[in-house]
Amino acid sequence: MTATINLDSSLPVWSGIPFIGLLLSLALLPLFAPRFWKKNYYYVVAAWALVLALPFLWYFGQSAGHEIARMVLLDYLPFMILLLSLFAVASGIYVEGALKGTPFTNVIMLFIGTVIASWIGTTGASMLLIRPMIRTNARRKNKTHIIIFFIFLVSNIGGSLTPLGDPPLFLGFLRGVPFFWTFSLLPVTAFISGLCLTIFFILDTFYYRLEKHHLPHLEESHLDAGLRLRGGHNFIYLGGIIAAVLFSGIADLGEAVFMGVALPVQDIIRDFILLALTALSMATTAKKIRAANQFCWHPMLEVAIVFAAIFVTILPVLAMLRAGRDGHLAFITNAAQAPWHYFWITGLLSSFLDNAPTYLTFLTTALGNFLNGLPEHEAVLKLISGHPVILQAISAGAVFMGANTYIGNAPNFMVRAIAEESGVKMPSFFGYMAWSLFILVPLFILATLVFFA
Q1: Do 184 and 160 contact (CB within 8 A), yes or no?
Q2: I need a surface site. Which of 15, 167, 382, 448 has the fewest CB within 10 A?
Q3: Residue pLDDT, tens place only, 171-199
Q4: Which of 186, 86, 204, 237 is nearest to 136 (CA)?
Q5: Where does 212-292 have alpha helices with state H?
Q6: Hey, what's the torsion of the CAs at 21, 23, 29, 32, to 10 degrees?
Q7: Considering the entire predicted model, what is its pTM?
Q8: Distance CA 187, CA 314 (A)
């Protein structure tokens, strides 16, 4: 086989089975077989990847090899390097101390977390602020709702404004979406965040007034113990990460070919800068600061293994979707037409599957639907110029609705685990969904009517 074979129209529908099987494993096994998953997740994801990769390489030969190399070099490695740098640098910052757990204090902390999530990532913002939030409300009797709204806003909705905020948007950036284009989501982000913060303030005020007799002297001062920032020099490294990603989106230094894949030189430089900043953060941050943040490499290792399998198994699905109405997944392309279709289909799947591959799937669906046959980078720019609301709907659905379940976005489970370790009683999987059903879903319906109808 040659590298010029048209895989888009050649792949059968059943070639997407490993991708579906992997996503179902990721969604269901941690819930129903947690011990098995914890001990064997790397075997499970590797098995699904091999089920796809081996027949794919055997049948399509060089064409398949080129597609896998292209996915690894252009998407997977840059994606993992960015996550690694944000994870390492953000974990070197520790906020010590606490404020009084009043509704005003809590809403300000949630607002700050929502704002910074787009710049240091939802994972970085969650890890930076969840422990101060818990300490601030240590004397509160009712605090489950505080953590739930923290997941809604800081771990999900707040990451919608830059490619640094949430993995789906960075994948879009790698596919040609300009860095600052995602600021076009500011109106819908401000709309949902503002309503969510308002609901939280009303609910937290209700609980606060109920329990005031359990909290003597609460109103004397907002200050409980002075806040101190440890490892603040890591903000310089965060600035370097932002600058490096911006540089790669603005500069055009030509291409370098490696393994038959044309790599933009500015992207190579960006990735080396991110790795250097990661190394600097690790070398210059005191170990006790990372220990206070309970830092370890296991979460990054798990993400690296899982996403390696996701990026391999998603290849046939993306290829079939690129073919649009000519591909074997034309029924998906035909079903997604209006912006609100993309918002809800992308969002609902992102609630139960990982939102990064879901975003990539429906970005490709939109390209196949509206701009079938054009080179990907050119098609993305034409989609933005001709159908901007479609991409806004896909982006908002992937980022916002990751908050609907514990498994919609990686920080959700991390925040829940930290809260439970700190003695906060968190709802079950379906108990959490009841909160999102009654609070978030009505907000998403309103956003649909205002922005995507």
Answers
A1: no
A2: 382
A3: 888 888 998 999 999 999 999 999 999 99
A4: 204
A5: 234-250, 265-284, 287-292
A6: -100
A7: 0.77
A8: 32
